[in-house]
Design a protein that fits this description.
Helix content is 56%, strand content 5%. It is built from 9 helices and 4 strands. Helix 4 packs across helix 6, helix 4 packs across helix 7 and helix 7 packs across helix 8. It is globular. This is CSEN protein.
């Protein structure tokens, strides 16, 4: 066998982003903001695509006191709307635009979709418990006051007491939206990053 074949380098496949004009139309960012976001994205992801492992590594830097891998998985799924297993700049920019500049209803829809772990259109107690466990793991053991192991389940019960208006064991987007809109003044929705 010819060993020179092993030395041949394959070209790196690079993802080409949509045109700037199309992204300007799909997001609520300015041209300068998109250019700045793109520079940062390319700096972290030179190929133009981010797989879940890379996304998790980047996101985990913000939570060094805990384990952010589970929550990063849910966030990755929320940004990966076409379900192809990779985030391109467009996925990132469109999702970030909703979170930072979207209407209240768009932000709530994005959050609901994040909580709908299996993407069946409902948030179940199982979905919510997975999310809560991931959030508690991400926050780490340094949380003051220290949280017991039952804290995620207690949080889920409170969530369902408020959100499951017809008591059928699932929360629909309509229930989620109605409850959030009723309490938006005291909660400050949309002011906290994911």
């Amino acid at each position: 066998a010819d060993s020179s074949d092993a030395d041949v380098e394959l070209p790196i496949i690079r993802h080409q982003p949509e045109g700037l004009e199309e992204l300007l139309a799909r997001t609520k960012f300015t041209k300068m903001e998109l250019q700045s976001l793109y520079r940062g994205f390319k700096n972290e992801c030179p190929s133009g695509l981010v797989d879940e492992e890379t996304f998790t590594l980047i996101y985990s830097r913000f939570f060094p006191q805990g384990d952010a891998s589970s929550y990063a998985h849910f966030l990755f799924d929320a940004f990966d709307v076409d379900r192809n297993g990779a985030l391109c700049f467009q996925d990132f920019a469109v999702g970030l635009s909703v979170l930072l500049r979207g209407t209240e209803q768009q932000k709530l829809r994005w959050t609901f979709d994040l909580y709908d772990v299996n993407k069946d259109g409902y948030v179940t107690k199982e979905d919510m418990l997975e999310i809560m466990k991931a959030i508690y793991a991400m926050m780490g053991r340094c949380t003051e006051p220290a949280l017991g192991t039952s804290a995620p389940a207690q949080h889920v019960e409170l969530f369902f007491q408020k959100m499951d208006r017809n008591r059928d064991g699932v929360v629909t987007f309509e229930e989620f939206l109605a409850t959030c809109q009723e309490v938006r003044g005291s909660v400050g929705l949309g002011e906290h990053p994911p």
